[in-house]
Amino acid sequence: MKTLTVRLPEALVVQIETESRRRKLSKSDVVRERLSRTDGNRPQHRATFDAIADLIGSVDGLPADLGARKKHHLKATGYGRKRHR
Questions:
Q1: How many CB atoms are located within 10 Å of the residue 30 CB?
Q2: Are 60 and 66 in contact (CB under 8 A)?
């Protein structure tokens, strides 16, 4: 097994240490389990989506295919061109 060094926020370290002591596992085992969970990230992403769901489609005047053709739209509107003084 290879070693990987990462820097984690203090709050996350406390969570991992607490779970490690409670379950009597090493911190490495707890981290490996958390990383290998397939559903570990889904609730967080869903919560993020729910937080902005009311904003989706709330801007008028933009093309319907903006997500797929954003570069085309930006170029057509002149975004990024130098302004004349």
A1: 19
A2: no
Distance CA(37)–CA(14), nearest Å, equals 20
Q: pLDDT tens across 21-48, in order?
A: 999 999 999 999 998 886 655 555 567 7
Q: Residue written as tokens 């911190």? A: 27
> Is the dihedral angle over the CA atoms 35, 39, 45, 51 positive or is it negative?
negative
Q: Are 20 and 30 in contact (CB under 8 A)?
A: yes
pTM: 0.45
Helix residue ranges, H only, 25-66: 27-36, 42-52
Report pLDDT digits (tens) over 64-84.
Answer: 888 888 888 888 888 888 877
